[in-house]
Amino acid sequence: MSPAAVTGASSTAPLKNGIPPKELLDDLCSRFVLNVPKEDQQSFERILFLVEYAHWFYEDNSVEKNPSLKSFTLKEFTSLMFNSCDVLKPYVPHIDDIFKDFTSYKVRVPVTGAIILDQTYERCVLVKGWKGTSWSFPRGKKNKDEEDHTCAIREVLEETGFDVSKLINKDEYIEMIFGPQRVRLYIVGGVKDDTEFAPRTKKEISEIAWQRLDELQPVNGDVISHGVTGLKLYMVAPFLKSLRAWCSSHQPPISPKLDAPARGISVWKAKGCSPGPGNNSLVVTTETPSSKMRGKGPGRSFRNFQFNARPILQAMETAFSS
């Protein structure tokens, strides 16, 4: 039976307590752990990235098609996969340490994105995550060997649907260091305020809005503050001082509009919210599993574990020969 057939059969089968059936977990293990290049099977960092991709696929496709399936956190889903996938079962006793090291590694992966400004340099585009209430500039983690500006173009396109490849200047950016993580945001000015925005990923962005810079507050002492309108700006505020200095030293394409709205404008909302200017659809676009595999490239092996790829290769040979 093919993986597609297995998935189709399990998506409608009755479930107990919302736990995915073994057939579905076996299919996810086959797709995302077994049938990958050998170099992606050499460390727990890489294995956990593969499990994370399987988690995205499960939440975005399996749960959506069968609401009786339970949603899981990444840690819960990792435990499910390790306990159900034969090649991962030997490492179940170490799963807490493996997951802890994985999350520690992820915060060290560099992040890039873009600060999109309107034609008057009075507004910027902010996105709100699917979960929580914090806003940020569109950005995300770099893939392995990916250039900073290439990552920024990809992440902005995925989170807003807007292609900045012809507008980005590799020398115009603001860079901050947060603990072990470097965050670089390229400044992209002169974008028309009637530009249509809509994310290309599912369940990642819940809202996109033009926000006025004069309503966003920079860091005050050691506190990363909220905006004057109550917006949570933990990953926005640290960049505002440098951004305002940049705006002051650059001439905007057009002068400020006297009739411009005094507040921020929401231009895209998910979950059935009313559309804003420039938004013709509220349907979050469908993506393939490969389009979610981004910004979280594999790195070097963990310090305390050595992953044995032999069982995986043997399992693949058995699958192909059967």
Percent helix: 25-40%
Span of the ends, CA to CA: 11 Å
Let me know the average pLDDT. 79
What low-confidence regions span 5 or more consecutive residues with pLDDT below 50? Answer: 1-15, 221-226, 273-307
Structural class: alpha+beta
DSSP strand content: 15-25%
Total of helices: 9
Domain Nudix hydrolase: 107-236
GO cellular component, one term: cytoplasm
Main location: cytoplasm
Region (Disordered): 278-300
In short:
This protein has nine helices and eight strands. The chain has helices at about 5-10, 20-35, 45-65, 75-85, 95-105, 150-160, 235-250, 290, 310-320, and strands at about 110-120, 125-130, 135, 140, 175-180, 180-190, 205-210, 265-270.
Task: Give a verbal description of the structure.
The chain has 322 residues and is of the alpha+beta class. It has nine helices and eight strands. The strands form two sheets. Strands 4-1-6-5 form a four-stranded mixed sheet. α1 (3-11) packs antiparallel against α2 (22-34), α2 (22-34) crosses α3 and α3 (44-65) packs across α4 (74-84). The longest helix has 22 residues, at 44-65. It is elongated. The termini are close together. The model is unreliable at 1-15, 221-226 and 273-307 (pLDDT under 50). It is found in: Cytoplasm. This is Nudix hydrolase domain-containing protein. Keywords: Cytoplasm, Hydrolase, Manganese, Metal-binding, RNA-binding. Residues 278-291 have a biased composition (Polar residues). Its cofactor is Mn(2+).
